[in-house]
Amino acid sequence: MSRTVYRCVECGWMTPKWLGRCGGCRSWETLQAEEPGRQSRSHRAPPARPAVPIDAVDASTARPLPTGVGEFDRVLGGGLVPGSVVLFAGEPGIGKSTLLLDAAARFTRRHGTALYVTAEESAGQVRARADRIGALAPRLYLAAETSLEAVEAQVAAVHPALLIVDSVQTVCADGVDGTPGGVSQVREVAAAMIRLAKSHQLTVVLIGHVTKDGLIAGPRLLEHAVDVVLSFEGDRTGGLRLLRPAKNRFGTCEDVGCFRLTAGGIEEIPDPSLLFVSGSPSAAPGVCATVAMEGTRPLVTEIQALVAPSAQAVPRRSTAGLDAARVAMTLAVVERRAGVVLAGQDVFVATVGGARIREPAGDLALVLAVASAAADRPLPPGLLAVGEVGLAGEIRPVPGWGRRITEAGRLGFRCVVAPVGVEVPPDGPQVITARDVREALRSVARLGIRSAAVDAALAG
């Protein structure tokens, strides 16, 4: 008679009785009941193939195969590696299936057969999507299966070079206790997919769901077992999509791919900086650009600020695309260290195009945008600012300065406000250095932004 055990969905730790906290990873409320299956180790399996000297191994078998989707291949490290397993996660409706269906169709035109297994939608629904995005290919096979054994049979019949399973949480294995998506089922399905990839030298892409907290659903062992973990992110109200690697055994985790969701499918954005710069006139107050780093890619992003008299007892502070806590800190520095009066004023700050600035390099641009909005005078055209601002008002350097200044020059910015000590290129935009926010405002004022408010702040 089998006894019920409790397994942690995060780390796989087991205990014969329920506990409120996992004894392995120390997470709360992560233990789920499951019936342990019988395991037999009565015999030892012979090795699948004899060991060979490492210099006799054919390294060409691990060469990445490009899919033809440039942004996807760049994030992967050049393409899909035979024998590897990729976990592709994202929120519902973000475009995971659309992107992978397009990549599978392009893959078949270059390297061989692909099998797309849909366990959530019908084959007709996937065919309709393929018609819409132009992903019909004669060597792209489609199967609607929810059984792990049926998926393995389809692989044996088709012999694909690429297998896509949509999704790993909806495929179930016979003889394993638990519902689809549970700890036991996901663990068994993932293990079977890894065995398929290694034994058949095919690439397996598993589409995964995410929780409301943005984490990949299922046991954390799933992320440890696969070779690559990709996260597809974006605002569902906008068209911008970002592909980020959380784990990559074949390349860097510092890159990011940019896509746009359109009626015709997912389109690549090879030059995403143009998305984050508005088409507003250069004479608009409260507008300043910066260069944010998404991995190793510099993206010119525009920050817009609006300062208006408040009709409420407590003025509003609203942000979009920036960290609210960091914006509140920067506004306090602007008021205290630079003398720009924001008391009794509503302050609204946002980025253009749905961009998200996750690093402090945009602090200085935020300071200049707020000062410009408070003075109701525009900044000089072609101005860009890069630098971290501290609580004392000092401006600190940020990493990746060389790539940032090169990107600013490529997009035609003529002047960059930066911290003291940065390297000034011999050719490119003019670099104006400043030690603190007051000196930065004074330098910008000499370039042309003058008003009674700014003059009073500088005089104070």
TrEMBL record:
SMART domains documented for this protein: AAA
Signal peptide feature range: none
Motif (RadA KNRFG motif): 247-251
SUPFAM superfamilies named among the record's database cross-references: P-loop containing nucleoside triphosphate hydrolases (SSF52540), Ribosomal protein S5 domain 2-like (SSF54211)
Ligand binding (ATP): 90-97
Gene3D superfamilies noted in UniProt: 3.30.230.10, P-loop containing nucleotide triphosphate hydrolases (3.40.50.300)
Listed GO biological process terms: recombinational repair
One Gene Ontology term, aspect cellular component: cytosol
Entry-linked PANTHER family: DNA REPAIR PROTEIN RADA (PTHR32472), DNA REPAIR PROTEIN RADA-LIKE PROTEIN (PTHR32472:SF10)
Homology family: Belongs to the RecA family. RadA subfamily.
Protein name according to UniProt: DNA repair protein RadA
Naturally occurring in which organism (per UniProt): Acidothermus cellulolyticus (strain ATCC 43068 / DSM 8971 / 11B)
Gene (name only): radA
